[in-house]
Design goal:
Layout lengths: L3 E4 L6 E4 L7 E3 L6 E3 L34 H8 L8 E2 L4 H5 L4 H6 L41 E3 L2 E5 L6 E5 L7 E7 L6 E8 L8 E5 L16 E3 L13 E8 L1 H4 L4 E8 L9 E5 L31 H21 L8 H6 L22 H17 L8 H10 L9 H17 L29 H20 L6 E2 L10 E2 H18 L5 H9 L1 H10 L11 H11 L29 H18 L2 H14 L3 E3 L9 E3 L19 H7 L2 H11 L4 H4 L11 H10 L1 H9 L17 E5 L4 E6 L2 E6 L12 E7 L4 E7 L11 E6 L2 E6 L7 E4 L2 H4 L4 E4 L10 E4 L3 E8 L2
Helix pairs in contact: 5-8, 5-21, 8-9, 8-10, 8-20, 9-10, 9-11, 10-12, 10-13, 11-13, 12-14, 12-15, 15-16, 17-18, 17-21
């Protein structure tokens, strides 16, 4: 057969066909532009046409009517193209029986049952698949079903709801996996994408691995390069019927110069999530195929405006709060080792005197012997260690709130006050020699008689609680004469009794000294460590303690500055200048989001109230604003407002499909933050007294104590909220109908942007440490049709400095973040391969078109550019 050779007039892609194809209008497989196949100069070929310079606005292209006699050229060109399209590795059942649709041809789908000459003469021919660099690459056909092998206890199953086939790894993590072979482009970065269906709950991580299941050699030995799925809690956040996708890269060392690789999918704690399809491709952004069905689509809708409350609501809220406080006090103090005849029980040997007044005392091995007393202490300490970071020590706080709240049955009750005093007595006996209670090394009793050393970096909240107990009730104890009573404060019968006054001075002194000198292990715990110092100081003031009992506040100055971001840019801090809390390395990434992030916002306000630190007050407002740029709408079939905060731009809650995010009431009440106001409006719009009567206390479960404290602490602010509930008409940044935006935090290296109904949230350098960039971006792309989670590699400086210029191409978006600390403005050139074929490029943040091929970005600034091809 005579072959005609020619080139695309725009990108110089070499092509070939038959002389009869001259004059046909076709799509270039590299740049996707239409052009007319030139007329040959002689029968053996044609003169090569020189490609024009790359430009963003294509020149006018003749659009000739297509004659389907040229369909053969399409098939021949498909053989030299195909890597940007997806190489579908799983052949769906319906593909085997249906004819090849034009959508399948465009997507590179070629069912095994289809013949090579199958044609659809009703539609024009197209040349698809971008190829960079521009040279022929073997196409990757649909992988036959036998190419995917179920190893061990992996199986192919059928989804009864949809009829679709899927794979699942069911057991034996060391021997079970999915093995598959994929065509690759040896000149590019290659990716693998998996398709999942929402609604399932799993507790395992899914990885791309070697054929034998061993980890792949990702640069810098990062462990998450091939991480498809890591629910971190078991919920993916996707509603049943909605499909979502996860993309990871294949290390270049495995694909360079090759056209095929064999890999596996490995699950570390089977059963895995159902895997509905496997794809291989060379673009970081995966576009679902036309035959990826069924799709369940909810049309985006605007959330309602705030509906005013019914009359009498504030009074109903006040009554309900009294009821909740009373019940929480009862619930917490029921865990106390106490009875009206507790002294008789001690005399009879039924209860150990050392443990009277404590909560959650484990008496299972008590036999009224010295040896069994040691067992009881160790068992109790062990329980404390695993329950909310010494959570049972917070129970007296609920009791104190009930005591001081008018309208409760415990209000100013004398016996109740004595029980609170007994709880503080036990707290002093349980305190370690350092002032701490938690011993992470031994997990055994550190209290009297031989106090041990403890170094709890997680217990600041417990100290805040029991110190606040005395702040609330101390003056009443003084009036009742309780402070002058003699008590045992050290579990040692050989030492004299001391007054409660003295015991409490020692308790609060040791607590304040410990907290002022022990840094928390993470932002929220550091906040609790520092916050606990202030009620301890207030308690010492009520006791009129000498100066020697007070902590050296100078030790706290630097820690407070790091906590509120009052440091020079780039120095160790727990929070970025834009309010995103950072991880425990001081300059970690993203750190805590979800409810941890909201808690941090609220705790800034409480820190300000106790310390008067204006920087804490300022950061409350800044952090409250920053976090809401990662709160996105969940569109439900019933049209009700629901939102989540993205869990993909931080390491601790990565890949969970988002989680709940409650607004910070102080941020809304004290700062009038419009975004937190909007969340509260959506939460309480149209609230009625009957609905308020259904409110309950803190949720039971492992985190009850923390929830109880948060509930009771915020009640004064919540009463302010309902007394003057703001009704401004505001919208969340990600809400439908809100303006498009680009928001970046160059220190935390996280960003989000909205483009119509498309939303992207990402961390530029996931899991960085010691100022070294990982070179991997975690990206969550969200649209009404589907979600995509992607782990995308990008170039980093030779010295791996994370505070540099970061650039990522992702689909139609070119993302640039200048994290430089030296104030340097960088000049950036638009990547030619990304811009190829674009009609125009706009700055998504401003909407302005980009007229040049380069632009400048200031230090500590972020830009997102969008290419428009249609």
């Amino acid at each position: 057969m005579i072959t005609m050779k020619f080139s695309c007039p725009y990108c110089d892609q070499h092509l070939d066909g038959e002389p009869d194809h001259a004059g046909l209008s076709v799509d270039c497989p590299a740049c996707h532009r239409k052009f007319t196949v030139p007329t040959p100069a002689h029968k053996q070929g044609i003169v090569k046409q020189k490609a024009p310079a790359v430009q963003y606005t294509p020149i006018a292209i003749p659009r000739n009517k297509v004659n389907w006699s040229g369909f053969v050229i399409f098939l021949s060109l498909m053989l030299i193209s195909g890597v940007i399209g997806c190489f579908v590795l799983k052949q769906q059942t319906e593909s085997r029986t249906s004819s090849v649709s034009q959508e399948n041809i465009k997507a590179g789908v070629s069912p095994a049952s289809s013949k090579a000459d199958t044609k659809d003469l009703s539609k024009p021919a197209t040349l698809n698949h971008d190829i960079q660099p521009l040279k022929p690459v073997p196409t990757c056909p649909v992988l036959p079903i036998e190419k995917i092998q179920c190893i061990g206890k992996a199986q192919e199953l059928t989804d009864k709801e949809t009829g679709l086939k899927y794979y699942q790894i069911l057991g034996d993590k060391n021997e079970s996996r999915l093995e598959f072979t994929s065509k690759v482009d040896g000149t590019k970065q290659n990716y693998v994408t998996l398709r999942f269906k929402g609604g399932s709950k799993v507790h395992s991580s899914l990885f791309l691995r070697y054929k034998d299941g061993k980890p792949l050699p990702y640069p810098q030995d990062i462990w998450f390069g091939g991480l498809f799925d890591d629910p971190s809690g078991g919920e993916d956040g996707k509603m049943p019927g909605f499909f979502f996708y996860a993309t990871v890269s294949i290390p270049r060392s495995l694909t360079d110069g090759k056209d095929e690789v064999t890999l596996s999918i490995y699950d570390d704690n089977p059963p895995s999530r159902n895997i509905y399809r496997i794809y291989s491709h060379t673009e970081s952004f995966f576009k679902p195929l036309a035959d990826d069905k069924p799709f369940k689509t909810v049309k985006p809708y605007r959330w309602p405006k705030f509906k005013p409350f019914e009359p009498g609501l504030v009074e109903a809220v006040d009554r309900k709060f009294v009821d909740v406080i009373e019940k929480q006090g009862d619930r917490c103090m029921r865990e106390q080792l106490w009875a009206p005849d507790w002294k008789e029980k001690v005399k009879k040997g039924e209860w150990p005197a050392d443990m009277i007044g404590g909560s959650c005392i484990k008496l299972g091995r008590w036999k009224n012997t010295p040896e069994s007393l040691v067992d009881v202490k160790h068992d109790t300490q062990s329980f404390y260690n695993v329950r909310n970071n010494m959570g049972p020590l917070t129970n007296p706080y609920a009791g104190a709130m009930a005591y001081v709240t008018k309208g409760t049955k415990q209000y100013l009750d004398k016996e109740w006050l004595e029980r609170i005093a007994l709880a503080l007595d036990f707290t002093r006996r349980a305190q370690g020699a350092s002032g701490s209670f938690f011993s992470p090394w031994t997990k055994s009793w550190v209290g009297g008689p031989k106090r041990g050393w403890a170094d709890g970096k997680l217990e600041g909240n417990a100290h805040w609680a029991f110190c606040s107990v005395f702040v609330l009730t101390g003056k009443d104890m003084e009036k009742a004469g309780l402070l002058d009573q003699l008590i045992d404060d050290d579990c040692d019968p050989n030492t004299p009794l001391v007054t409660r006054r003295q015991a409490y001075k020692d308790l609060f002194c040791m607590s304040a000294r410990f907290l002022s000198g022990c840094v928390g292990h993470a932002p929220n715990q550091e906040m609790f460590q520092l916050s606990g110092v202030y009620p301890a100081i207030k308690a010492l003031e009520i006791l009129k303690a000498d100066k020697k009992y007070f902590p050296d506040m100078g030790k706290m100055d630097g820690r407070i500055k790091a906590l509120v971001g009052d440091v020079e840019l780039g120095n160790p801090t727990w929070v970025s200048p834009k309010g995103i809390t950072l991880e425990s390395w001081g300059l970690g990434n993203g750190g805590y989001t979800c409810e941890y992030g909201r808690e941090q916002v609220t705790e800034y306000w409480y820190l300000y109230e106790m310390s008067g630190n204006e920087a804490a007050k300022r950061m409350c407002g800044i952090a409250g604003n920053g976090f809401t740029h990662f709160v996105y709408p969940v569109f439900r079939e019933d049209g009700k407002p629901e939102w989540k905060i993205d869990g993909y731009f931080n390491w601790r809650h990565r890949m969970r499909g988002g989680s709940g995010f409650g607004p910070s009431i102080p941020c809304a009440v004290e700062f009038k933050n419009p975004y937190h106001i909007r969340l509260l409006q959506l939460q309480y719009s149209g609230l009625t007294p009957d609905e308020i009567n259904k409110w309950g206390g803190a949720a039971e479960g492992n985190w009850f104590y923390q929830s109880m404290m948060g509930l009771l602490k915020e009640m004064p602010e919540k009463l302010k909220l309902f007394s003057d509930f703001p009704a401004e008409d505001v919208m969340l940044p990600m809400e439908s109908g809100a303006p498009d935006f680009v928001w970046g935090d160059e220190i935390a290296q996280v960003l989000s942007f909205k483009d119509g109904e498309k939303r992207v949230m990402m961390c530029m350098n996931q899991w960085y440490k010691d100022r070294k960039a990982s070179g991997y971006a975690f990206i969550h792309y969200l649209s009404p049709e589907h979600d995509i989670y992607a782990v995308v590699p990008h170039d980093i400086p030779i010295d791996k400095n994370m505070f540099a210029l970061n650039q990522v191409c992702f689909g139609d978006y070119f993302i640039v973040m200048n994290s430089c600390l030296d104030g340097k403005t960088e000049t950036v050139e638009i990547p030619a391969d990304w811009a190829h074929g674009a009609r125009k490029i706009i700055n998504l943040g401003t909407g302005d078109p980009l007229e040049e091929k380069h632009f400048t970005v200031k230090a500590q600034d972020t830009h997102v550019f969008k290419r428009i091809s249609e």
